[in-house]
Specification:
single chain; two-stranded antiparallel ribbon
Length: 157
């Protein structure tokens, strides 16, 4: 199973804010630190704010901060919220031109649904705070905030 880019970014934003201490990075700071477009980070931040997992204040002294709900949020619930409740495969043809001809008697769909639920269930007991415990928390603080161009066109984070 592959997570959507927005799910990955949401988890990383929450983790970064969990170790931010007294600093309140802006959405632009988060976008630069995560090496993603500002517009993408802004959409994810807006969704996290809507879910009361972080607060965003504008202006001088503003920025992003993690709420207590965000710190204690279940990783499984977050992934479900961002990924949606859809099946791993599209047996009904919603995204393709025709439904799968095997869908009425196929056992694969049920097996994949059980595997997906097992994946979520393994994440349910984890919280954002759990994800930032040592040694991850100190590593998050050391993540460079700006990409550096290296000779030959390659990039380093």
């Amino acid at each position: 199973m592959r997570l959507l880019r927005s799910t990955d970014l949401a988890l990383r934003v929450l983790m970064r804010l969990a170790v931010a201490g007294d600093t309140n990075p802006t959405t632009r700071d988060v976008a630069a630190a995560m090496d993603v477009p500002y517009t993408h980070a802004a959409k994810v931040v807006a969704e996290l704010q809507h879910r009361a997992l972080l607060t965003a204040r504008r202006g001088r002294g503003g920025g992003l901060s993690l709420t207590e709900e965000g710190r204690g949020a279940s990783v499984g619930a977050l992934v479900r919220a961002f990924e949606g409740e859809g099946d791993v495969v599209d047996c009904d043809g919603a995204a393709s031109t025709a439904p799968c001809p095997l869908r009425s008697d196929c056992r694969l769909r049920g097996a994949l649904r059980r595997a997906q639920e097992a994946f979520y269930a393994s994440l349910d007991p984890l919280t954002v705070a759990d994800l930032t415990a040592d040694p991850t928390g100190p590593l998050l603080l050391g993540v460079p905030h700006v990409r550096q161009d290296l000779p030959g066109g390659s990039r380093r984070r």
